[in-house]
Amino acid sequence: MNRSVDFVIPILIAVLTISAWWILNRPNEEPAWPTRIQGFCFSPMRAAQDPNQKRFPTLEDIDADLALLAGRTHAVRTYSVENSLGEIPRLAAKHRLNVTLGAWIGPDLKANESELTLLREVLAKGYRNLVRVIVGNEAILRKDVSVDQMIDYLERIRRITYLPVSTAEPWHVWLKNPQLVEHVDFITIHLLPYWEGVPLDQAVDYAVRRYNQVKTAYPDKPIIIGEVGWPSNGRRNRGAEASLANQTRFLRRFLAVAESEHYVYYVMEAFDQLWKLKTEGATGTYWGVYNVAREPKFTFTEPVVRIPQWRELAGLSVVMGVLLLTFLYRDSATLSKRGKGFLALITYAISTAAVWIVYDYTSQYMTLATMIVGVLLLIGGLGVIVLLMAEAHEWAESVWLRRWRRPFPLRSVPDDRLPFVSVHVPAYNEPPELLRETLDGLAALDYPHFEVLVIDNNTKDPAVWEPVRDHCARLGERFRFFHVDPLSGYKAGALNFALRHTDPRAEVVAVIDADYIVRPQWLRHLVPAFLDPEVAIVQAPQDYRDADQNAFKAMCMAEYRGFFHLGMVTRNERNAIIQHGTMTMIRRQALDAVGGWAEWCITEDAELGLRLFEAGHKALYIPCTYGQGLMPDTFADFRKQRYRWAYGAVRILLHHRHELLGLRSTSLTLGQRYHFIAGWLPWLADGFNLLFNLVALAWSVAMVMAPDTVTPPYMSIALVPLVLFLFKLSKSLFLYRRRVTATLRQSLAAGFAGLALSHTIARAMFAGLVTGKLGFFRTPKLAQAPAMVRALADAREEALLAFAFLLAAVAVMQRPDAFMLDVRIWVAVLVVQTIPYLATVLVSLLSTWTQLSADLIGPMSDMDCRDANGVDQPVIWEA
Asked: Which pTM was predicted?
């Protein structure tokens, strides 16, 4: 039955996926394109040509373009007579095309005079296919010249030609400047509803209304529509979406009205113009009816489909989804139908989004810059897909397991069958009263055969270590104390020293930190797991007893709980837990066989666990509280601890990369490789997010400094970090409420504390990649809370980055196009990226308010063993 579910669910989701593509791409009937239109705006620039760089088309290029348009239009409108463009009237005559001749007017008065001189020379040739002259194109709108200057230019040309003369401006410029109308023979208006943010369905009516408004204002002047069109790609302008389907719909609808009303118009424009990217942004490139390769961009008579290639894209998204799902389903025998359905839904959504984003990005013209950016985005996109899949997989397995694969029943074992245990307690400069509590807890263990070795390494002050030595002597012969100075290797060095002095009878080595108070049943309950000869590690969670001291510690407690009650539980299902250096037990023989603790590694516990997996051993994780320690007292110490963990994770990944990637033969299973790589992906993602943030700030500065040339990133790409943030937030809140059984306040507090560590983890990721050595630092306990000024100083990097992002968001909103959707989405990205940095500042400040009650967050109960649905299991004793 379960095997059939593996096929039925993906098929159902695939059908839904294809149906969604079909619904979004249903064909729409539109009026047919006329056999021959009134006119095209004509700029014959090819891909590598740019009039601003004085790179003009050859006469052959122009002739070929005119030949293509012959029979499809009555006329063309030009914009300049510079260089080869002055030959357009002569070449157009060969193809029986009329020409509205244009002269470019800009802010350079000397260049304007040169352009007018060339215009006179062309007019002097008396081409019969010239029908009118347009001096300047939106020059008044751009404020390149004043109205009076434009009137002067117009009058000078009117005096030398019998052809009607005008200038071209948007409709509202004519309404504002009636004096200009007195010096033209006709009015040339531009009707471009896209630039005014008019939605497509209202655009044609809007254009007609503006045409009639000008006609009513100046009834005695002929009106020519000098530009009318819609872009096929680019930015969304309020309600106006730039797309190929919308370009098709608008033009075909407008042309039907224009033909019935007998308008004289010029469609904007014949060919896409790549050179406009620098002056008009990406949108300015895509107004052509034909692309830069001179191919028609849309159908002229067939029904309009939003994405003509939707069938191929739908098929590709399904294939991609199936491949991803096959990987996730290959080891999902214990996952329920709901869990498999959730994974299928997420997988198909991710694959569909990925296919659409790639399609959307590659729909633009590829330059060297866009190709480089595209490759980087592809690499980043693959990382996002892997991260989302890993997060979704953990979500599913945390909530929708039908049964645990590796249940841990408690077994009653006679004392004479229980192995001898050597408990190691490494200590460095720990307060004596703290260690005495720890040792008293060990003395109360309900276990027949054990010893305790306390290794104090490198503590200089005898007043700190001698009271501990004396206390061990009072506790009896089971307790042995060693003060070693100097001793290299930090904690791993101390543990290796203890290993060399361990009782030969010991079959199991247990390790606890110096601040942990264990429960009497710890060894009695968990050591029997070693009766299975394949088990080398038995791990209980880290837990803490001081969460009730203040709100900061309650928040930290909630943040810790997620890993030990979610991540470790799902890892245990595939024998892939991360060993941590307290509340852990290791088979002595296995520990000796792999060479003991690695003194090169700052996280020697996790590294040892991986080596034992490589050697083919098993590990068990029991998510029940058997001992409790102390949390860091300040945020500075909290982040130091996490920095060490993250740094060590990177060093482990690098050191064991051949084993994890299967390049070196080991006993690692695919599930273990998956968890050790995917499990640390969120931390790696924090590192890459820092890179993204630095690029985002640089991009934002460029947007502010050069608003005319630097536009926001593609909207589909800018949405990715927002979606990723919301997905991770939803997952965290859901799992905390469902599996950790945390309250909403505790769930939010845990998420906030986790966000506050993002920048610390990011820095640790990069440090781990480029440095090979990090000095060990003990996480201080019972430290004095820092002053508020110190707390701000501890978070100064994050505070500066938060300020930079907020300043960038405010500055970007000052752009003239701040009303556009893509700008606002980019501002939203900047604001969201600010949240982790602000969280750091606030949590750091919170750590100074030691009088703030923990009740604001709420107490968390001890961790109990639970089944897959979060229901407490009864204790099962096996004889």
From this structure: 0.86
